[in-house]
Amino acid sequence: MGQQEGYADDVVKGFIIWSIVWGLVAVLLGVLISLQLAWPQLNFPPYFTYGRLRPIHTNAGIFGWGIGSFMAFFFYITQRLTRTRLWSPKLARFQLCLFNVVIALAAITLAMGMNRSKEYAELEWPVALLVVVLWVIFSVNIIMTIVKRREEQMYISLWYIMAALVGVAVLYLVNNVGIPISLTKSYSAYAGANDANVQWWYGHNAVAMVLTAPPLALFYYFLPKSTGVPIYSHRMGVIAFWSLIFMYLWTGAHHLLWTPVPDWVQTLAMAFSIMLIAPSWGAVFNGYFSMNGQWHQMRDNYLVKFLIFGITFYGLQTLQGPSQAVRTFSGFIHYTDWVPGHVHMGTLGWVSLVLFASIYYIFPRLYGREIYSVGMVNLHFWLAVIGQLIFSISMWIAGVQQAAMLHATNPDGSLHYSFMETMIELYPYWHARAFGGVIYFASLLVFIYNLIKTATSGKPAPVAARP
Amino acid sequence: MLEKKPIIFLLLATATILIGTMITMVAPFKWINDPKLKIAEVKPYTPLQLEGRDIYIREGCNNCHTQTVRPLLADVERYGDYSKVGEFVYDQPFLWGSRRTGPDLARIGGKYPDAWHYKHMADPQSMVPRSNMPKYAFLQRPLDTALTSRKMKALHFPYTPADIEALKGKTELDAMVAYMQKLGSDIPWRKAAQAAVIGELKNPYQEDKTVLAEGKAIYDKECAQCHGKELQGEIGPSLADIDKPDAEVFRITYGGLPAGGMPAFGDALGKDKVWKVVNYIKYHQRR
Description:
The structure holds 2 protein chains of 2 kinds.
Chain A: H1 10-38, H2 50-82, H3 89-111, H4 125-147, H5 156-175, E1 178-182, E2 185-188, H6 192-209, H7 213-227, H8 234-247, H9 263-275, H10 277-289, H11 297-300, H12 302-324, H13 327-333, H14 338-367, H15 374-407, H16 419-423, H17 427-457
Antiparallel strand pairs in A: 1-2
Helix pairs in contact in A: 1-2, 1-3, 1-17, 2-3, 2-4, 2-7, 2-14, 3-4, 4-5, 5-6, 5-7, 5-8, 7-12, 7-14, 8-10, 9-12, 10-12, 12-14, 14-15, 15-17
Chain B: H1 6-26, H2 28-32, H3 47-58, H4 73-79, H5 114-122, H6 124-127, H7 148-154, H8 161-165, H9 172-182, H10 189-193, H11 212-222, H12 224-227, H13 246-255, H14 266-286
Helix pairs in contact in B: 3-9, 5-9, 11-14, 13-14
């Protein structure tokens, strides 16, 4: 295990540490902007308003914490599944530097108001170009390692890794096409409904290629590693993989139901969103069935607890998502707080829990020490789950309440509530959400403290013996 | 087989991704660009409006405000006529948004007079006490017009050097308000949607003092920001000594006065509440 077998793991450490730093920034900013919604006097224009900080929150979360740690794990997993040293550790070290430069530049430029306005594709073109360079050198390194592999068979995790590499490349390039005006300003190349349709084809498939395929790659790798028993069905994994990457790309327009985008595009998106339940739950069942005879590990193996809760949130997410993609329900809850509630179950629940498990698995191994405190791992787990549930559940209730009020009419057909009458009802829920965010932030502090103690004063031990 | 051939696998995965992409992302261009969906009245942005739009983007207004009215009763009554494809052909990028923390702005143009926007943008809570919108008073600074011509050229919008010259002395707030007033107002929907109240109107609450408190509550929430707490007038005219008959006050409140900057409250409040507020205004005047 580790460096002694000749794997390039230093860069894995680097990506893990920096992704955690950016994750902490993302959650801290999340807490701040949730407070700004509840108390507008916490906005400090021009740089620190909700409008400028929210894109930094999402970019730090998705690209800093998400992609940063996926880069670490793609390097880690690919080397082990191919039994091959990384094609170019030097390039990977350069990639780590570039990654941090890009995320820092993203935060600075967004705070300064350099913003393309397209969600999760806000970065102005010079920064976006650096993202492209970053992705190309990353993809080349991973693919060359796979091409030169010493293990002939490619395990399912590698499939998800490769799909994510090409998927992100296609999406990012197409959605970022623009007309540069200056170094700090550009316009989208597409107009109106076309731009909307391209954007949500990108936006929704960023969910597929960044927040679904990579964590599934990790899940398929670390669940068997943690439990010590193989995955339930390779064939089910294969079928779920192909149908997932086929169907996802049809669903972007469910973000645009009832808008001027052509009806047939909306209807297709709706239908494929429902169909996506099958491949999504293929992965969920594969996870659950892999636990046959191993459910006791939920009690005595904290890694399994994170992974199984993670895949459960994924299962809930992929039922809730399709239900929101139905015209009638979308007409009701779209544009309300229901949606942030949904999104954060995916990011704080599914993606982050799987990432925590993966970090808890490899961190002690990378440092050749045992985890400093299992009690703290459990504390981290419960704070994270409780914080996330407070966040999501308060937002779902807020969304349903506001939707019901917005749609309420008087007997003569006029509206029963003005917009403001519905909005002021949200304040208590916004307080609850901020509280949930603070708890989640506390869970991260416990997590980070435990990792620092593990690296500096954990008991030196070969941890490979874990079942 | 695939499990042993990474390059073939990569090509196949890419092809799989491209099928849905071609059908739901590439093909719709043809439908959306259909010349039949063009709307002749919809005009490109003027230099001032475009600069306003860029400030809207810079400040991330789209994080809290949507710009698309859905063909649903609640949306149409609250915001106006539903959005049409042809209304967005000059929007690069589109700004439909995804969350309505604040109200939709697709049809904000013409709803309020300019003065309302200036005051509201600088201090939203002075107009809407429990609003959670940040204060944008800092936009009262000179507009940077260094790139304006280049922007207009890049988007192929018509302009004259005089238009650019006219931007001298404008503030960012001027540009923002110009943009607000343009939104959704190219098509004459407001006139078409204006509720015509027909037949003889009789105040059902005449001399009824029991509904005065309710009328005052509605007035404070919906009217006071422009007509003043004591009906003394501010952005809108004083109502303190209004001498129009009840039916006329009802008509104006219900259907609005688009030319005078008075919004229509009929769809939002309904007849009953409008009568109550009319009753309050008239009672206040008789006092």
